[in-house]
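I hope you will forgive my troubling you with a question about protein structure. Could you please explain, in whatever detail you think fit, how the structure tokens follow from the sequence? Thank you for your consideration; the sequence and its tokens are set out here.
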Amino acid sequence: MTTPEAETPQTEPPAQEPQERAAANERSGSEGRRPEERPEERLEQAVRNAEQALIEYEIAVETFRVEVENFSRLHHQKLGPMYARLDELDAQIAEARAARTGDPEDLRRAHEARARVMPMPAVEELFHDWMDSEGLRPEAAAMLTDQSVRPPQRVRPSDEARKLYRELARKAHPDLADDETERNRRDEFISRVNAAYARGDEALLRELGEEWAAGPVPAERQPSPTEELYARLEWLAQRKELLTVVARELEEGAIGSMLRLAPDDPDRLLDEIAEQLLAEVAEREAELARLLGG
């Protein structure tokens, strides 16, 4: 015999009103929604990440470009005369050997060696770097009046200049502009920042930092349509490819390759090369003396 409780039918919960069911479904959907289900938001984040990565890469490439340019200038100032002396000695040795042998092949080599020697520049070329709008430069005036010549100015940016430059480049980079007017303003400002950094001018970099801080604040970036975000990512990728080509050319160039041998102390590298060149000059002079004396 069954109990009354077992025979009692179970009652169903009262049916929900349509509005209540809709609210419950909405709550359930919002709680179960995962961030990866919102592609436009992920795309916006990808664009921002790509922009920041490109800015950092541009800063690194520009920093290395300035270092290569400054090292090239120092290399030319310090070692250029030694290279010119070696070329002249090679020409004299070849000419002395050809004069002794009279061999047509030696005569050809002597002619080629002499052709490699830098010809004497014209008068206007000699004075091109000696004069400016105000007349003779101080170095030229010192040479013409037998005064001591000031050594070449060191133009390698200091650590503080590098720090100031990186901060300004991150804040004012044109890629952060949201319209053409703002981009033009940033382009003009960054060009002045680059010029100050190339000269290692810390004071001017600080002034530019104050100028930027006092300037108009760009409007906050608004979410872009999906198709514009994809186009933006494509442009960033193309820009990165171009910068990669520039960086590779800098690194594989003669000066860049030398600079990478001693990035922390390039002056020491120049001194070592100078010692090697002086030894080669001494060897060439001894060989020329043997040819002329024999």
In short: Residues 102 and 170 are 67 Å apart (CA to CA). Strands lie at 131-132, 135-136.
